[in-house]
Specification:
- It is a single chain.
- The chain is of the alpha/beta class.
- It has a single domain (8-143, 179-232), classed as Vaccinia Virus protein VP39 (Rossmann fold, 3-Layer(aba) Sandwich).
- The protein has seven helices and nine strands.
- It has helices at residues 11-20, 22-36, 53-60, 72-82, 120-129, 145-149, 181-190; strands at 43-47, 64-69, 87-90, 104-110, 130-141, 159-167, 170-178, 193-199, 225-232.
- It has a seven-stranded mixed β-sheet with strand order 3-2-1-4-5-9-8, sandwiched between helices. The protein has a two-stranded antiparallel ribbon with strand order 6-7.
- Helix 5 links the parallel strand 4 (104-110) and strand 5 (130-141).
- The longest helix is centred in the first third of the chain and has 15 residues, at 22-36.
- The protein is globular.
């Protein structure tokens, strides 16, 4: 979702790893779905839907799902997964979204907002397309990660940084914005959302042993992402 991170460059490699990785398949996605709860019949917007693994799970749970992503390559993979009848659009969260007011009951932003420096317009747009008392469920890089992985850096400063990673054997650069927790939560409040839940979940007990690093196998949880459930006012 940023100019520095271009998923078109490694869409297929990322999507393949996303299917079975501990962080995505057995940690982030199960937590998002648990926070969403019963979504049967609900109109759900999958923000930054990527190749569609979360959209597929939402559809299986009975939701009416629309999705968008800035990456055309990711959307092509999503269309292959979900079929041509699925409402999938190319859109940028930093711009006006191609949906009418009050279009959705729930919006889900799975590992999206940490790519953006300015949240003012994105949060305003999400609030606009949600019904009154609609919910926004989102996950972010945990704010402790940046100073933890970069000793000596100031936790309290908003900082842009890049991680060099490998997805399914292919190198990739992901550029994020670190922001302290109080700034994150104040941004939600200033945008008109009520904070219903903040969660640091464990990973799924269904995770196969081979995807769990040995150092984590005797632990119930670890810190990588943080999860929020927000709600608009009436």
């Amino acid at each position: 979702m940023s100019t520095e991170t271009n998923y078109d460059d490694f869409a297929l490699a990322y999507s393949k790893e996303n299917e079975t990785s501990l962080l995505n398949a057995y940690y982030e996605r199960p937590a998002i779905l648990q926070m969403a709860g019963n979504i049967t019949g609900r109109r759900v917007l999958d923000i930054g839907c990527g190749a569609g693994p979360l959209s597929q799970k939402l559809l299986e749970r009975g939701a009416q799902v629309s999705g968008f992503d800035a990456s055309k390559a990711m959307l092509e993979l999503a269309k292959q997964r979900l079929g041509s009848g699925m409402d999938l659009r190319v859109a940028d969260l930093r711009e006006k979204l191609p949906y009418g007011d009050d279009s959705f009951d729930i919006a889900i932003a799975s590992l999206v907002f940490h790519y953006l420096e300015d949240w003012t317009q994105p949060l305003a747009e999400v609030r606009r397309v949600l019904v009154p008392e609609g919910r926004l469920i989102l996950s972010l890089n945990h704010p402790i990660l940046y100073p933890w992985n970069n000793p000596g850096e100031d936790y309290f400063q908003r900082v842009k940084y890049t991680d060099e990673l490998t997805f399914n054997g292919r190198p990739a650069s992901l550029t994020y914005w670190h922001r302290p927790l109080h700034e994150t939560m104040n941004s939600f409040i200033e945008a008109g959302f009520n904070i219903r839940n903040v969660w640091e979940p464990p990973y799924s007990k269904d995770a196969p042993q081979e995807v769990v690093p040995e150092r984590l196998r005797e632990r119930d949880a670890f810190l990588s992402f943080i999860f929020f459930e927000l709600q608009t006012s009436k």
